[in-house]
């Protein structure tokens, strides 16, 4: 007799998002405040969630995805290099690391590079460089700025000029003090006999998208020369052509007196350098380039052939596709559009800041529809943007950051402006 097989029960249709969130709740350290969104794949400046919904990505993975998502050149570089050599350690020479260092030196100025795995580590390297520089004179203190962000390592949070990142992790690593940004007189006054370096972002990112002024940058250079301090620039977020120039200070100073000759003593990089492949680097100016001699600093993975092949490919595409110009042009287009939206809705928007494709949109204070106990208005606005089909990133309580791919198209930018205006108009509700 034929065995009767009972029909299988209908599959439990589950929301994919809930399944993934459960995995996180059970297994992932809850150190991030995440949006209610699980992403599955992307193409260019668009992302798709696990339920198939499409979003315009104006956050670019927090200024990382320089070529957008799933760029064929990155795939090609990964495939080609990984079929040859992924990793060998820094006990040996590999060509991609040497070539990427050469390219970065060419874009900045005479000096040398060290490769790390992240922005925080790139900054750690610069802190060590500064300590080495001042060691024999007993100088070690590094001045940074209020509202700065320099990473989440112990020295990174000590260097960061925001109390919220330090809370609960005291005592802080000694040797860091914070001074008002864009205030040259305050910086001069803060210098002590122990001071060895000053670190600033060319455009403060996490702190709310605030560019340095021309006078500040030139004044810091002169001050550092006068007091024998290293001038360190954290370009992790604002660098790599985001401003329209390779370095944001180059964009800020372009065309003006002193701009051509301006060079910091150290620059940290990450994010767009690898376009999503985790890597960081610091550049150090020629006179100090050999301070970190053999055995004084290192990391297992830094500058792997795979990472550097990707970094080289990204530079090649940026040059070939004129993405610095695109960042400038699309940045201008977005900025004008945002300024118009701010003009149309002055009760909700305070204004627009930034350079190129690093823009900040400031919300007016105390918008009634964005007042929710325990939630920041910028995060609530970003959530509304997500519901409307676009991703933006909060920077502090009242600023939204736009850090899209450098190859953002004009139709992407138009789509972004339409969604932003729609969300702003609904703030009245
Ligand atoms: N410096 C700046 C200016 C940053 O914006 C960030 C990250 O957002 C960092 C350093 C830290 O970089 P990472 O997260 O790669 O360690």
Description of the molecule:
Helix 4 crosses helix 10 (305-320) and helix 11 (323-344) runs parallel beside helix 13. The protein is 36% helix and 18% strand. The mean pLDDT is 96. It is globular. The strands form four sheets. It has a seven-stranded mixed sheet, sandwiched between helices. Strands 1-2-3-15 form a four-stranded mixed sheet. The N and C termini lie far apart (68 Å). The protein is of the alpha/beta class and 429 residues long. The protein is built from 13 helices and 17 strands. The protein folds into two domains: 16-70 and 322-428, Aspartate Aminotransferase, domain 1; 72-320, Type I PLP-dependent aspartate aminotransferase-like (Major domain) (Aspartate Aminotransferase, domain 2, 3-Layer(aba) Sandwich), CATH 3.40.640.10. Pyridoxal-5'-phosphate is lined by residues 62, 118-120, 123, 149-151, 201, 205-206, 234, 236-237, 270.
């Amino acid at each position: 007799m034929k065995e009767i097989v009972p029909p299988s029960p209908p599959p439990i249709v589950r929301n994919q998002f809930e399944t993934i969130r459960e995995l996180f709740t059970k297994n992932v350290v809850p150190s991030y405040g995440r949006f209610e969104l699980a992403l599955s794949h992307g193409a260019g400046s668009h992302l798709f969630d696990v339920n198939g919904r499409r979003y315009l990505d104006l956050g670019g993975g927090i200024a990382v995805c320089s070529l957008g998502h799933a760029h064929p050149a990155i795939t090609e570089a990964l495939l080609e290099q990984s079929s040859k050599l992924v990793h060998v350690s820094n006990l040996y020479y590999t060509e991609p690391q040497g070539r990427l260092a050469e390219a970065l030196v060419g874009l900045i100025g005479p000096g040398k590079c060290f490769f790390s795995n992240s922005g925080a580590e790139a900054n750690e390297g610069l802190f060590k460089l500064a300590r080495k520089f001042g060691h024999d004179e007993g100088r070690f203190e590094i001045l940074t700025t209020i509202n700065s962000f320099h990473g989440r390592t112990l020295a990174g949070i000590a260097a960061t000029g925001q109390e919220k990142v330090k809370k609960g992790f005291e005592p802080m690593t000694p040797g860091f003090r914070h001074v008002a940004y864009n205030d040259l007189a305050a910086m001069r006054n803060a210098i002590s006999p122990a001071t060895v370096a000053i670190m600033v972002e060319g455009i403060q990112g996490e702190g709310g998208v605030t560019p340095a002024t021309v006078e500040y940058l030139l004044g810091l250079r002169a001050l550092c020369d006068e007091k024998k301090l290293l001038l360190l620039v954290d370009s992790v977020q604002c660098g790599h052509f985001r401003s329209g120039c390779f370095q944001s200070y180059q964009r800020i100073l372009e065309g003006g007196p002193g701009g051509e000759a301006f060079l910091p003593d150290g620059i940290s990089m990450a994010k767009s350098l690898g376009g999503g492949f985790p890597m960081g680097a610091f550049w150090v100016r020629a006179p100090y380039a050999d301070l970190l001699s053999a055995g004084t600093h290192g990391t297992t993975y830094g500058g792997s052939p795979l990472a550097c092949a990707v970094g080289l490919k990204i530079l090649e595409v940026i040059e070939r596709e004129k993405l610095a110009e695109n960042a400038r042009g699309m940045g201008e287009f977005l900025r004008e559009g945002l300024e118009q939206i701010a003009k149309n809705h002055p009760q909700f928007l305070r204004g627009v800041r930034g350079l190129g494709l690093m823009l900040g949109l400031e919300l007016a204070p105390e918008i009634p529809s964005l007042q929710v106990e325990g939630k920041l208005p910028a995060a609530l606005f970003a959530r509304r943007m997500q519901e409307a089909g676009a991703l933006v990133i909060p920077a502090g309580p009242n600023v939204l950051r736009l850090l899209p791919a450098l190859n953002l198209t004009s139709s992407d930018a138009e789509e972004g402006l339409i969604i932003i205006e729609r969300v702003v108009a609904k703030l009245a509700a």
